[in-house]
Amino acid sequence: MSSAQLQTLLIDHTLWLRGSPQGDRARLSGADLTDADLSGADLTDADLSGADLSGADLSGANLYGTDLSGADLSGADLSDANLSYANLSKATMPSPEQPTSLPDAAERVAAWLARESRWLQSFWIQTPTGAYAGDYRACLHGAAVYLGGAFGPALARALTDAGYTEQWNDSPERTLADVLAALKDISQNCEA
User: Fold this and answer.
1) What CA–CA distance (Å, rounded) separates 151 from 144?
2) Helix 140-147 vs helix 102-114: angle between axes, to the nearest 10 degrees?
3) CA atoms lying within 13 Å on the CB side of residue 24
4) Pairing mode of beta strands 137-138, 125-126
5) Which tens digits make up the pLDDT trace of 136-164?
6) Which of 57-61, 127-131, 173-177, 183-187 has the lowest mean pLDDT?
7) Taking a C-beta distance cutoff of 8 angstroms, is the pair 181, 114 a contact?
8) What is the DSSP secondary structure assignment for residue 174, as one 8-state letter?
9) CATH number at residue 35
10) What whole-number distance in Å separates Cα of residue 44 and Cα of residue 154?
């Protein structure tokens, strides 16, 4: 897709978001957007399922509710991106170190969440200054997908299957200790 085509599509999507009959939802399922500049783009509720976004600049992009299932985000810049309610199932996320097993992924997520108040409720992921810059935060499932590498989707499924759903995470009485215990439970009771 050319840069001009992409800009036209983004304009149409913005019009669609504003309710204009001239607009159209961004449907980029399976698109090759390698190294694309989507910085600051409002892609709320767009379909980017299966898209190749490797190396793309998504800094400051609004990806609220965006379907990124199966998308390749390896090497993408997600600094200051809003990924709340985005569908990240089976997405390849930018990750500095890949876990070697499902228990390893659960242990890494627990260790990460335990540091510096990184656990969130009511949001999936917040990346104020960039992915892996040290100040991003996530809910249990967001952290599982974001940090779990190739095991992220399986870890999120295992958590859900064990009753540790997004609603469980967001329950007002939930504590970080509960979240860490859930990850320990998965780590100890799943197959490597």
Assistant:
1) 8
2) 120
3) 7
4) antiparallel
5) 778 888 888 878 878 888 898 888 888 88
6) 127-131
7) no
8) -
9) 2.160.20.80
10) 26
Highest mean pLDDT among 37-51, 137-151, 153-167, 169-183: 37-51
Q: Say if residue 14 is in the same domain as residue 28.
A: yes
Are 53 and 123 in a shared domain?
no
Co-location of 80 and 106 in the same domain: no
Same domain for 71 and 155, yes or no, is: no
- Tell me which residue range forms the domain holding 81: 1-94
Cα–Cα distance between 187 and 95 in angstroms, integer?
Answer: 20
Give yes or no for a contact between 79 and 127, defined as CB atoms under 8 angstroms apart: yes
pTM for the full model? 0.59
Phi-psi region of 21 (alpha: psi -120 to 50; beta: other; left: phi over 0): alpha
Judge contact between 155 and 75, C-beta under 8 A. no
Confidence of residue 95 (pLDDT cuts 50, 70, 90): low
**Are 127 and 141 within one domain?**
yes
The count of domains in the chain is 2
| Amino acid 61: pLDDT | 93
